[in-house]
Design goal:
The N and C termini lie far apart (40 Å). Strands 4, 5, 6, 7, 9, 10 and 12 form a seven-stranded mixed β-sheet that branches. The protein contains three helices and twelve strands; from the N terminus they run E-E-E-E-E-E-E-H-E-E-E-E-E-H-H. The longest helix has 20 residues, at 174-193. The chain is globular. By secondary structure, the chain is α+β, with helices and mostly antiparallel strands. The chain is 21% helix and 42% strand.
Length: 194
């Protein structure tokens, strides 16, 4: 350890918790917690459902592509190019949610859906998980079924272009950066085993 006394690796204890806001996407709680050294503080925590995303790898005559969706994002007030994904419904398995989102948003399905990793979107203030899956060789097989307020276009985008532009322009969604990294790591591992 370079600095500290070891308490940084110990959990805080929740002393009280009260809901201060609730909407259809998340709830905000104000928590009073006590640290391992005895100090107390007030913290805002967002409770939200877990999310799932799926990174579809498509082989084309031009080379590897990703099946992606383009949509307006209200928080950023900008159009975003992303991998298909969304909220995991109560009782739904994350892999099923990822495959469902792929079909609903693009009309494509895959026989091979593999788990690439699970992360916390923002552990400083959120309690939910972000589950990342890979879809190998998906194909268009079903009709799209968008949510009431979804306006989404699906596109095949060259994988090299996505990797080159990730973090710029329409590709600034931080969770998509994470999804691409973990998906590429999984696919590289599969290829090295082949």
């Amino acid at each position: 350890m370079i600095a500290g006394d070891g308490n940084g690796a110990r959990k805080w204890m929740t002393l009280s918790s009260r809901k201060v806001y609730e909407c259809n996407v998340f709830s905000v709680y104000e928590r009073q917690s006590q640290g391992p050294d005895g100090r107390t503080g007030h913290f805002a925590v967002m409770e939200a459902k877990d999310w799932a995303v799926i990174v579809p790898y498509v082989r084309t005559e031009q080379g590897a592509s990703f099946l992606m969706v383009r949509q307006y994002r209200h928080g950023a007030d900008a159009v975003s190019l992303e991998f298909p994904g969304g909220v995991i419904e109560p009782g739904e398995e994350p892999a099923h949610a990822a495959a469902r989102e792929l079909a609903e948003e693009t009309g494509w399905v895959s026989e091979r859906v593999l788990h690439a990793g699970t992360v916390f979107p923002n552990p400083a203030i959120q309690d939910n998980h972000f589950h990342i899956y890979v879809a190998l060789d998906p194909e268009p097989k079903v009709d799209r079924h968008l949510d009431e307020n979804e306006i989404i276009d699906a596109h095949l985008v060259a994988a090299d272009e996505v990797r080159r532009r990730m973090g710029e322009g329409e590709l600034q969604h931080a969770l998509m950066v994470t999804a691409l990294h973990l998906a590429d790591r999984l696919v590289a591992s599969l290829e090295s085993q082949a």
